[in-house]
Amino acid sequence: MTETTAEPDIVTGVDIEKLMGGRPIERIVYSSKEIAEQVARIGEEITREYEGEADLLILGLLKGSFIFLSDLVRRISRPLQVDFLVASSYGSGTSSSGNVQLLYDPAAPIAGRNVIIVEDIVDSGNTLSRMIEALEGRGPKSLEICALLHKHIAPRLAKEPRWVGFDAPADFLVGYGLDHAEDFRHLPFVASLSE
Ligand code: IMP
Ligand code: MG
Questions:
Q1: pTM attached to this predicted model
Q2: Domains in the chain, CATH or no CATH each
Q3: Distance (Å, whole) CA 57 – CA 114
């Protein structure tokens, strides 16, 4: 296991050692620059995909998607609306409990609308499957998933994400919205955490 060197992040100029409070990270898996490139690409693809459509609702799965979502919507060049879903499946551990709870339901109507669920990461797929089930029942015109990271370890997904930023390693990842016990969400990059 390697300790982090205090190299500044090239986009934000952040001092990583200061940022982490001395907590070692294994490695930076995706830099701010690489993330920004994928966010721009996905934003362009979504813009093209919904050309001529009257309506687009972006539903962010909190809390993990908050940074990805806020960067992504600014890369989508068309009218849209934003709302959120809150699900909870993880305690303070690093593996999925499989017990997904829907803690907040979007206030926005779903029926007849083009909806994109924005996820930070698809791991076991439990969260996603549960959300798809809940939203499909409300009769959207279309329902797609956009995930920053996809581990490709889910045994069965109710629906494959239409847009994925990165095919991620099976490590436990933090930063750019992803947490470990609520820490590290604010990192401008994605890192794997040392044990
Ligand atoms: P799933 O239900 O197992 O697919 O996991 C869904 C949620 O668990 C994600 O939206 C994340 O909030 C969290 N999660 C899964 N894998 C990781 C990880 O590697 N780091 C941080 N959070 C994760
Ligand atoms: Mg989480």
A1: 0.89
A2: 55-90+98-185 (3.40.50.2020)
A3: 6
The answer to whether residue 167 is catalytic is no
Of the candidates 48, 20, 36, the residue with the CA atom closest to the CA atom of residue 165: 36
Question: Two tokens at 78?
Answer: 């068309």
- Tens digit of each residue's pLDDT, the chain (195 residues): 444 444 556 556 678 888 888 888 889 999 999 999 999 999 999 999 999 999 999 999 999 999 999 999 999 999 999 999 988 765 545 555 556 667 777 878 999 999 999 999 999 898 888 889 889 999 999 999 999 999 999 888 889 999 999 999 999 999 999 999 999 999 999 999 876
117, 123, 124, 192: residue to mutate for ligand 1 pocket, most atoms within 8 A of CB:
123
| Ligand nearest, relative to CA of residue 171 | 1
CB 186 within 8 A of CB 23: no
